[in-house]
Amino acid sequence: MKISLVIADGVKQIMMTPENDHERECLNYISPKDELKVVSKKGTFDDKEQHIGYQVNKCQGGYYRRFADEKSLMFIIEDANKKS
Question: Domain ranges in the chain?
Answer without folding.
Answer: 1-30, 37-84
